[in-house]
Design goal:
The model is unreliable at 1-42 (pLDDT under 50). Helix 4 links the parallel strand 3 and strand 4. By secondary structure, this protein is an alpha/beta fold. The protein is built from 14 helices and twelve strands. The chain has helices spanning 2-38, 58-73, 93-104, 117-126, 165-177, 193-207, 224-231, 244-247, 250-259, 269-274, 284-301, 322-327, 334-338, 343-346, and strands at residues 47-53, 82-88, 111-115, 132-137, 156-160, 183-188, 212-217, 237-239, 264-265, 278-281, 317-321, 347-348. The protein is 47% helix and 17% strand. The chain has a five-stranded parallel beta sheet with strand order 2-1-3-4-5, sandwiched between helices. Helix 2 runs parallel beside helix 11, helix 5 crosses helix 6 (193-207) and helix 7 runs parallel beside helix 9 (250-259). The protein starts with a helix and ends with a strand. Keywords: Signal. Residues 1-19 form the signal peptide. Residues 24-43 are annotated as: Disordered.
């Protein structure tokens, strides 16, 4: 009887141990699954990002598309695990402020993106408790979005869309290949800080070759055509900065340039693709993609915006549009083409 009791006790103990082992295995799976739903694993976590863009034009749109593409490549995809609250101010400062206030009041946002200086500034004034990235901003220091490009601190960082060397290289190209250009006309909204900074840089770069910059000021997009027409007969070429008011009406400048056989230089690739003759630049899609990678790093790895340096474009190249050249009466020489590093992509036929 005693022997029978001990045998029963040993069997019961074995069953408890076996059951315990089974529970351990099961608890590991549950733990992993639990982590993935509480934020420990990113695969099943959903995100919400708010975007504020000052106006629609090709460069800013390409920036947004590149941003979203980088997130998708990082496993954060719209309509799957990402909700995007996209807002466009249509160039209106009142709309811009209202959008920033609305975004600041939405606690569901995991991250906020401002595209172009006015949108980024409005967001920076309103959003203090979420990571805030900026893109298509020419002068983050001058705009006081950050106080240090390498270590911004706070909740704001992003990417500048200008490399000071771009206008220097473009001025060198003009002086070398088009010696008859002695004056360059610039339509500018001096209410846009980024446009003023770039205009000042252009004035210095052109002056180094004894080329004068002649400005035609505007206060909004509707004045661009009249301002452009006012430069005809006074200048040998046109040039525009990343001035949102002007870029939004670039078709009118292209028409005037073509009708009057005036070479048209720009500050961005997208304008060259539309009909300007040349720039030294980069793809805004790539610029946006760079910012999207920063967003993925913040969302998936918890990297602090204040620890992420502000980036600038580092793959500058001369970009030529051959059809625009023909329309503007420019003979594109082999020497001009030879200055293009990536001729397959940056000589537009």
């Amino acid at each position: 009887m005693k022997k029978k009791f001990w045998m029963s006790l040993m069997m019961a103990a074995s069953m408890i141990v076996a059951a315990g082992c089974g529970n351990n295995s099961g608890s590991g799976s549950e733990s992993k699954g639990s982590d993935s739903t509480t934020g420990g694993g990113s695969a099943e976590k959903s995100y919400q990002i708010a975007i504020s863009q000052i106006v629609e034009h090709p460069s800013l749109d390409a920036t947004r598309e590149g941003f979203i593409a980088a997130l998708k490549d990082a496993g954060i995809e719209e309509n799957k695990n990402l909700k995007i609250d996209y807002n466009n101010a249509q160039g209106d400062s009142t709309n811009n402020l209202s959008i920033a206030q609305k975004i600041a009041g939405d606690s569901k946002n995991d991250l906020v993106l401002g595209i172009a200086t006015p949108s980024a500034l409005a967001l920076a004034q309103q959003v203090k408790d979420k990571p805030l990235l900026f893109a298509a901003v020419t002068d983050p220091l001058g705009a006081k979005l950050v106080s240090d490009m390498d270590k911004p601190g706070g909740n704001v960082t992003g990417a500048s869309d200008t490399n000071p060397e771009a206008i220097v290289q473009l001025a060198d190209f003009i002086a070398k290949n088009m010696p008859n250009v002695k004056t360059v006309g610039l339509v500018i909204n001096e209410g846009e800080p980024n446009a003023v900074v770039m205009a000042n840089n252009a004035e210095k770069a052109l002056a180094a070759h004894n080329i004068k910059l002649v400005k035609a000021p505007v206060t909004n997009t509707s004045e661009v055509k009249q301002a452009t027409d006012s430069l005809v007969g006074k200048v040998d070429a046109f040039y525009i900065t990343l001035d949102n008011s002007v870029v939004s009406a670039v078709d009118t400048i292209i028409q005037t340039a073509n009708s009057n056989k005036i070479p048209f230089f720009s500050s961005d690739r997208d304008t060259v693709e539309k009909g300007a003759f040349a720039t030294v630049g980069f793809k805004y899609y790539d610029h946006g993609y760079q910012v999207g990678e920063m967003a993925a790093d913040i969302l998936k790895n918890g990297t602090k915006p204040g620890d992420m340096k502000v980036t600038v474009p580092d793959k500058l190249d001369l970009i030529l549009n051959l059809k625009a050249a023909e329309a503007q009466g420019i003979t594109v020489t082999d020497e001009m083409k030879a200055e293009v590093k990536d001729q397959d992509n940056n000589i537009i036929k």
